[in-house]
Specification:
about 400 residues; alpha+beta; Heat Shock Protein 90; five-stranded mixed beta sheet; two-stranded antiparallel sheet; elongated; transmembrane helix; membrane; phosphorelay sensor kinase activity; transferase; Oxygen sensor histidine kinase NreB
């Protein structure tokens, strides 16, 4: 719950209670006013205004700037009208204005909505109106004006600090959730993927031939994954150090030399060639008959995003679900659509997953496309499956066929 919500609720209660107080004071002193009917007219307007807007101050979405300005204007009008409908003797004696302490609600609303600067502006206007109504800066008037001015500014400042603290806490919680998810993934990778890659490397080296090449590739991926799990990507020249650490841990071939980190080829490559291996018994792939060229780095990230989308299908669409990959070659962009016939994603599930630190869609798919200057649009209908559209703009003319 927002730290502001109790303040808005308290303000609503304050406005209602102070209206009742102002009406009671006016009723008790009705016969003492110089023009009681004029005062009654204002109090009637104030009562109707409160009846129509009593719940506008219960939430920040409903308490708009326009409403606050109107509320303050009505309070200022009541203070100035008091000088007309009340007697000079009562005014000089320090009698309450028509809105009385209800005026404080208008200033407090400004403080909660806009902070201490809005509160200072509103309370200053109230002070000027009180001085104009009284005609001179009497001691009790100055005392009340300073009380409203200081208290409203203090509340406005407290609200600003509370908002900043709430934003900081929310950011810390997101970081903590992301860190927990990274640690969980690191444990899973270490306990499964790294062990399998190490075994493939050892078996490939023992068998020789084509298996040795497969083992070498597995060793490269093991080094890259171990580097990532250990705390981030390192420069290629440190790959040998990571390989030695892996050998000491028992996961790499003893005495073996570490291969260089894999390099991304330069120039455009065919996106279809990267996506075709995803096709299988449950995944269909369709694309143009001609190569769809894209810069190698962008094509690799796009293919990885497609792989992440297919992983989500396997994890969440259930057994027997099918997926379709459609590659489209547009003049200014490459578009890949991944669709499945699973149960779909419940409304709000992605937002909940992101708040809980599960960043599969946010990072593996949308994050990759965002870094490429593209976009990832996800459309899901419960019971009718999910479709992810990945769009990568072409960087320059070299990618055109």
């Amino acid at each position: 719950m927002s730290v502001e919500l109790p303040l808005w609720r308290a303000l609503t209660g304050y406005r209602i209670l102070t209206l009742c107080y102002a009406l009671a004071i006016f009723a008790i002193n009705y016969d003492e006013y110089a023009h009681p009917l004029g005062g009654a007219l204002y109090m009637g307007v104030l009562t109707v205004w409160m009846a129509l807007t009593w719940n506008r101050s219960s939430a920040p979405e409903r308490c708009t700037k326009r409403f606050l300005m109107a509320d303050l204007a009505l309070a200022l009008a009541g203070i100035l009208v008091t000088a007309v409908v009340d007697t000079p003797a009562r005014i000089d004696g320090g009698a309450a204005t028509l809105p009385s302490i209800w005026t404080g609600g208008a200033v407090l609303g400004l403080a909660i909505k806009g902070g201490w600067r809005w509160a200072a502006a509103g309370s200053t206007l109230v002070a000027l109106a009180n001085l104009a109504e009284r005609g001179s800066p009497a001691r009790d008037t100055v005392h009340n004006v300073l009380l409203v001015w200081v208290s409203s500014i203090a509340i406005g400042y407290i609200v600003e600090v509370a908002r900043a603290s709430e934003r900081t806490l929310a950011r810390a919680l997101r970081i903590e959730a992301a860190t927990r998810e990274r640690e969980r993934l690191a444990r899973d990778i270490h306990d499964s993927v790294l062990q399998v890659l190490a075994m493939v490397q050892r078996r490939g080296a023992a068998l020789g031939g084509e298996a040795a090449e497969l083992g070498r590739m597995a060793g490269e991926q093991e080094i890259a994954l171990r580097t990532l799990v250990a705390g981030g990507l390192l420069p290629p020249q440190r790959s040998a150090e990571r390989a030695e650490e892996a050998g000491q841990a028992g996961d790499a071939e003893p005495g073996g030399s570490a291969p260089d980190a894999p390099r991304i080829p330069a120039g455009p490559i065919d996106v279809g060639a990267l996506l075709a291996p995803y096709a299988g018994a449950d995944v269909s792939f369709a694309g143009p008959g001609t190569p769809v060229l894209l810069e190698a780095a962008a094509a690799a990230e796009l293919a990885a995003a497609v792989g992440a989308a297919l992983d989500n299908v396997r994890k969440h669409a259930g057994e027997g679900a099918r997926a379709w990959i459609l590659l489209e070659d547009e003049p200014g962009a490459v578009i890949v659509s991944v669709r499945d016939d699973g149960p779909g994603i419940p409304e709000g599930r992605l937002a909940d997953a992101e708040r809980e630190g599960r960043m599969g869609v946010a990072l593996s798919i949308r994050g990759r496309l965002r870094e490429l200057g593209g976009s990832a649009e996800l459309v899901s209908v419960p019971g009718q499956g999910t479709e992810v559209e990945l769009k990568v703009p072409r960087g320059n003319g070299k990618e055109q066929r």
